[in-house]
Amino acid sequence: MSLTSLKLSAGRDTSHSEASGSSKTLGTLGGDGYSATAGYSREKHSSREDSVAESGLRSRLTSTSGNIIAQAGKDIALAGTDVSAGKSVSLSGENVLFDVSLDTRDGEAHSSSSQYGVTASAGGWAVDAAKAAETAARSAENGDDARLTAIRAGQAAVTAAQGMQSDAAVVKGKVAVTAGSSSQDSRYHSADTQGTAIHAGEKVIINARNDIAGQGVQIGGKQVTLEAGRDIVLSASRDTRHSQSKTSGSQVSAGVGVSLMGSQNGISIELGASRQKGQEDSRSQHHTHSVIRAEEQLTVNSGRDTTLKGAELEGNRVVVNTGRDLTISSVQDNASYDSKQSSSGAGVSLCVPPLCYGASSGNVSASGENVAQSGKSVADQSGIYAGKGGFDITVGNHTQLDGAVIASTADSGKNKLDTGTLGWSDIHNESKTSGDSYTVAVSGSAGGENRNMAPAIGTGQAEESSSDTTSSAISNGSLIIRDTANQKQDTGGL
């Protein structure tokens, strides 16, 4: 069919949703095994999500046993489209452009709570040591990083040792009026792509008077030809993920305590306050290559430049003719995760005779934990991959390989690269994980013997990294460098 232009794209399904609600509780508000609270609480929550879905509504051109032929005076643009023919597919236009279908999700959620009540709790250095040991055990059970688990186990040992050396009560029970609030906010974004796909039982011919461009495009047939008067640019499509969350909370309390076997014995007045906050950020990016595959021969001709950035040319025999420059580069997937958590608190215990005998005491504490992970690596190597038919590549000016290959399973006599100059580089892949934590506690007392005025400090740190290299390479064959005067790298090192 002859057309002025041909534009096909996936359909689009959009949705928007919102939800909100609140609840109130009067009675038992829960606990953690070391404390329990009864009173009044209120919780509120809200969420929103916007989504766009195209992958389930892709356009299709199909000829089960025949040919698909489209000739356009202007552009042919296919986005999120599947083209298949039992025999041949032929597309011809001023520019032939291949794009992706795109699914996205964007959302956010918010929740908050407040509570007022009476809390009964168990404390003392023996209980504090048990809590720290439980945290370390839970870290191991959850499969956390072994280095961070070791840090937490060390903190548990420090807590127990400091308690035994101090004059704090072995066991201390408290009943207090409490008030507290907390909030959590989260946001997320995701984008998933699916490239246009073209398949023919026999031939696929793509002809552009100007440019051929595509991202994440998949083309396959027995014989495949790409012909552009100017440039051919094939790149990878990209899927992304990003999520963020923030949490915060604070509590205050006032009540009475009962202490045994320590610097206090009897009933004391207890005042306390604490605060917690944390944040997390996670990001990732994954690429899907453009792949042009021929069972027999793949021919790629461009009047100016051919650029493969996250793309593969595959065929039993591959023939490439580029008027100016041939550039092949691999792309790296990447991911990162950052977490920061901190807490602080202060408390006062007033020991007033005759209800209590011993020292009044106070304490201030702070703790935190940071975790960072990042990595970038080449999952699939860009390149030209020929089978037993070998490759025949002719480049007018410069050939550049960046972490890319020109490979063949054929005998070296069937492989030829003829270029003005040749350059190459390797790509560095790396992965890093680091974590650190700290605990600082300062306590003092008056009115009794004091043996613990010095601050207690605990720290831990873990770090690990690894790296490798994605190298450029060319299979053995005939390598012709025509412009030896401007050749900068020694091809013996390739």
TrEMBL record:
Pfam families documented for this protein: Fil_haemagg_2
Segments of skewed composition (Low complexity): 467-478
Composition skew (Polar residues), residue ranges: 484-494
Keyword Ribonucleoprotein: no
Keywords: Toxin
Bias kind Basic and acidic residues: ranges: 41-51
Bilayer-spanning residue ranges: none
An example Gene Ontology molecular-function term: toxin activity
UniProt-annotated stretches for the region Disordered: 1-58, 445-494
Protein name according to UniProt: Hemagglutinin repeat-containing protein
Native species: Tenebrionicola larvae
Highest classification ranks of the organism: Bacteria, Pseudomonadati, Pseudomonadota, Gammaproteobacteria, Enterobacterales
